[in-house]
Amino acid sequence: MPTKNINPIVVKILAIVFVSCTFLGQQAHAGAWPVRPGKVLVSLTGSYFKASRLWDRKGKSSAYADSGSFNSKGLYLYSEIGASRVFTVIVSVPYVSNTYSDTRGKSTQSSFGDAEVGGRVYLANINFKFYFAIQGTVIVPLYSDSPTQNVGYQSLGTDLRLVGSGSGSLGGDKSCYYTIEIGGRQYATGNGPFQLRSTVSYGINLDKKDQLAFSGSGVLSQSSDKAFRGNLSQNKDFSYVQASISAGRSFTKNFSVFLAYNQFVVGRNTGIGSNVSLSLINKF
Amino acid sequence: MYNGYLKIFYQTLFFILIVSSAPSFAKEGKNVKNTTQVEDDVVFTAEPEKKEAIFESHEKIVYNVNVRNNLGEEQAGKVGYVLLDLQDKVIKQDGIDVKVGKKTDKNFTLKIPAQSPGFYKVQLTINVTDYDDTIRRVVGVDPKKIKSETSKPGDFDQFWQNARDTLAMIPMEAKVIPQPALDRDNSNCYLVELKSYEHYTIRGWLTLPKDRTKREKLPVWFILPGYGPRGVKPIYGDDLAIFCLNVRGVGNSKDKINPTEEGYVTTNIENRYKYIYRGVIMDCLRGLDFIASRPDFDLNNILCSGASMGGYLAIATSSLDKRVKLCSANNPVFSDYRSLMGSKEWPMKSFVKYTSQKRIPLSRVMNNLDYYDLKNFAPNMKCKSLVGIGLLDNLAPPYNQYVMINSLTNKNKLFVYPNLAHEVPEQIYKYLSNWMMDEFGMF
Question: What residue stretch is flagged as signal peptide (chain A) (predicted)?
């Protein structure tokens, strides 16, 4: 297994970033490294998010009114296709089920969510130690504007981000990697939010099969629509920072499983929630 | 980006290439230490101000030296330098008075006057109360300005085209024989047998990942042997086809020709058309013919590499055959033969001994060697290349290396190791792995 072995790590990074996906339709990517031409990476993630408290517009914590709570169950299919040495095609399709319940009742929206299609271009590296890429995707809502299906903004959008990734040895079988990304997302509707997004990830390959990773990410979403809705996927003006920890194991060269937990740690106009997810990742 | 497998891989490759790269009879003791010491009483170290010991012709050659006095008495005396040309003629020597108190250490700076382009030997000396020693180094001054004083023969390209035409008429008759006893965890090993130039049978070792798919096209790492009879053994990888070739007279390719280690370099040297390296280089091209014949190999992604003689062969092969995408050559030998006239080192000493015994004019051999000179292959190499050299290398001296490097017209990356002789550090193989992954899109 001499020269490649970036692949498992890319897979791992993919998992780490991916498991931070939430009901807000964030998407994953695999750091700055491209996928080998002709190879296809597929990830299937199941996640469960729950928030029983919220941050108001000033960031003050409180309980939902009427003992309310919000939960979101999601199934995310994500794929990266190596098109050339420097270009990777990205496709993601989520299926989401959001439920808000309180003492007055319960409402659920279930549907395919915001799909994304785009690509990542590998730009450059510094001595093959730190890699830079730019990634762009188009956001396409796969749901209708109905009370039972509306799981997002129902708006086309674009996402553009810069990604930097590096890795290093920690001695023995241990190695580490890190990814930093920053970007923006614009939804096309009149008051569709503009969002600044960033993620920092650090992972340790404990041995040839196991890894532990930590990441933090933040979203600053701005819109003229300042309203807070119990269904968090409808909020447009908010911000939060979340932290996550994940553990992964590679069962074969091509197949890995990741379990992750993430927690919102600070925010504004959004729920205080936590998320558990399980990802199955395979390379074909 | 790396895991244990990758580390093991390039460590293995490093070991194999280095251990097999230098002629054993040509290995001589060289002071490549960075530190001298006597029972830890006094420790004398020296580092060039420029990391690679390559200076500009308008600047002084500066060494920072440190004297660590572990004794209970003050050490007084001189720290100095002797600057010599490559023929050991003293150009300049000087020194400074030093005093180093007991149980202390002190730093000093030695400044040598600016020199004209070329390579120079430097002896850094210490002569104090209870300790004397010398550290020997080589420094370069504007080596990019070094040019060969001899030109390429006018029919050089035709000479090699004729050899290629002859090779093309010989059917390859490739045999790929599974070697289950040599299989490793995720690699199958095969013995490859090919017919080559002059109908010689040559052999090599091919390893392929077990989990390869039918539609998969594997990048290829083509490894060529260093000097000596041992040759190369199988090297194992993942996601790669690794083909280690033993050229004629090396390893398991000795059916018709089996020269001694010392005699290899002079076999039929009196006839430029019969010289062993004509066949050897054609063997390398035959190895590429084999690679090109495999539908499961990615012919756009072939790395050709080697060290010492393997480095020479890698550059010669990449120059003659454009199927190579990347070339890696560490400590490549056989460059600018004519500048080695008078050298007591291998290979010149073997040429002198052979011509003397056979009563052949050395000039005739030198005329033949013009067709085998690495500097004459270099300009035609168009693929990207990675070259590593040691400034203390007595078998592939830095002057000769730079003649070749300055003849390159391709995009190339050079690593210079000022404190190493005929060797390179493990890190260059790490860089090579990364570079190959990047160029071949093997992420």
Answer: 1-30
Most A CBs within 10 A among B2, B10, B211, hence the mutation to make, goes to B2
Provide mean pLDDT across the span A213-221.
94
Chain A / chain B CB contacts < 8 angstroms:
100
The residue to which tokens 């004209």 are assigned: B116
pLDDT (0 to 100) of residue A10: 31
β-strand pairing of B218-223 with B241-246:
parallel
Residue B422 annotated to the active site: yes
The reported pLDDT for the residue numbered B40 is 67
Q: Which residue has the tokens 């070329």?
A: B118
- Cβ within 8 Å, pair A175-B239: no
> Contact B3/A175, CB-based, under 8 Å?
yes
* Closest residue of chain A to B435, computed from CA coordinates: A128
Structural domains of chain A in order of their starting residue, each with its CATH number: 6-283 (2.40.128.130)
Record: contact B237-A205, CB cut-off 8 A: no
A160: enclosing H helix or E strand: strand A157-171
Q: What pLDDT does residue A21 have?
A: 27
State the ipTM, two decimals.
Answer: 0.71
What percentage of chain B reaches a pLDDT higher than 70?
A: 91
Q: Determine the residue of chain A that is closest to B9 in CA distance.
A: A2
CATH fold of B4-21+146-440: Rossmann fold (3.40.50)
Query: Which residues are CB-neighbours of B213 under 8 A, at least 6 positions away?
Result: none
Query: What distance in Å separates residue A249's CA from the closest CA in chain B?
Result: 14
Task: Please enumerate in sequence order all residues whose Cβ is within 8 A of that of A25, keeping only pairs 6 or more positions apart, or say none.
Answer: A94, A96, A113, A114, A139, A152, A233
The top-scoring range by mean pLDDT among A220-224, B16-20, B139-143 is: B139-143
The class of domain B35-51+57-141 in CATH terms is mainly beta
- Is B120 annotated as belonging to a binding site? no
